[in-house]
Write a structure and sequence with these properties.
Blueprint (H helix, E strand, L loop, with lengths): L13 E5 L6 H12 L1 E5 L18 H6 L2 E2 L12 H17 L3 E5 L3 H8 L2 E2 L7 H14 L1 H11 L1 H6 L5 H14 L8 E2 L6 E5 L4 H17 L2 H14 L4 H5 L9 H8 L5 H27 L16
Parallel strand pairs: 1-4, 1-7, 2-3, 2-4
Antiparallel strand pairs: 5-6
Helix pairs in contact: 3-4, 5-6, 5-8, 6-8, 9-13, 10-12, 12-13
Length: about 325
């Protein structure tokens, strides 16, 4: 089944395909790309990490052969990767694709990456400050993410309107930037509307259908070797001199399900318990994504439906 092309008569120069996890963004993009002579630019903050293929549902080698993909496997999972770096690489990829006469398809579920491209954010690079990051991470663990977010809002109310309070990693990073630079996080985010004509395709499905697809995908990833992949990750971190508890605090390991899978590997959690925890976390994530993307894409009723379930989720 090919993805239908609706509303493309306005000759966009960039197509963004967004929506909640498990809705079928990758399948839709793979179907649409040949019709528009397109290449895919990932907008997934976990696809930048190597060694994390199964649990992040990263495009397979066969899919990458079928349609060129950009911004995959850029860093080891213990290496930092910032929004500023993402924007630099994403705009370079978009420019390269367009220079070759092809259509860039921005595809992914990381709302901040998508919004930063669509709204033309310019983010000055601020080097990571491990001491500050560790302090605010521990603050969240001790006082809760609500208290962490309240601290951000006190220091930078505009940032509080831009960052999801449940995204602890983003809130920690904003506080880290504020203390590192002495400036408000929001003031550093200059926005220039991109010159590209952009078509946003927002895919969505009934909530219960999404939940069922997400549940099925979790089981499929476990069958595909997610536990073994996680065990190999922990071995990789150990070889780099990092114990399991330190590894679990890495941003890469905040990807849905990896901490639970690691707890199973470490013998601290039963697999059935981990599966249920991942299902609950995924459903929360789906709800948060839906709210986020509606702000940028409007009502999903005016956009195409995702591919049928026989396609990749």
């Amino acid at each position: 089944m090919d993805a239908p092309i609706h509303g493309l008569d306005d000759a966009p120069e960039l197509i963004a395909i967004v929506g909640p996890t498990a809705v079928g963004k990758s399948a839709y993009a793979l179907s649409l790309a040949p019709q528009v002579n397109g290449e895919i630019v990932s907008a997934d903050s976990r696809h930048v990490y190597r060694r994390m293929d199964i649990g992040t549902n990263k495009p397979t080698p066969a899919e990458r052969q079928r349609v060129p993909h950009h911004l995959l496997d850029l860093r080891e999972p213990d290496e930092p990767f910032s929004l500023a770096e993402y924007l630099e690489l994403a705009w370079a990829a978009i420019a390269d694709i367009r220079r070759r006469g092809k259509m860039p398809l921005l595809v992914g579920g990381t709302g901040q990456y998508v919004r930063a491209i669509l709204r033309g954010w310019q983010v000055p690079p601020v080097p990571p400050n491990p001491a500050l990051r560790d302090y605010w991470t521990r603050y969240a663990q001790t006082h809760g993410h609500e208290a962490l977010f309240a601290e951000l809002c006190r220091r930078d109310p505009d940032a509080g309107r831009m960052i999801d309070p449940r995204n602890v990693r983003r809130v920690v990073r904003a506080l880290e930037v504020i203390e590192s630079t002495g400036q408000r996080w929001s003031a550093l985010r200059r926005s220039n509307q991109p010159a590209l004509r952009t078509k946003v395709i927002y895919l969505n499905l009934p909530r219960e259908t999404l939940y069922a697809r997400a549940d099925a995908r979790i089981l499929d990833m476990i069958k595909a070797g997610w536990l073994d992949e996680t065990a190999a990750l922990l071995d990789f971190f150990a070889q780099r001199g990092m114990d399991a508890d330190a590894a679990l605090r890495l941003p890469a390991m905040s990807a849905l399900g990896y901490r639970e899978m690691a707890m199973v590997v470490l013998g601290r959690l039963e697999l059935d318990q981990a599966i249920e925890a991942i299902k609950r976390a995924t459903r929360r994530f789906i709800r948060a994504q839906d709210v986020w993307f509606r702000r940028d894409a409007g009502s999903p009723a005016s956009f195409p439906s995702p591919p049928a379930t026989e396609h990749r989720l």
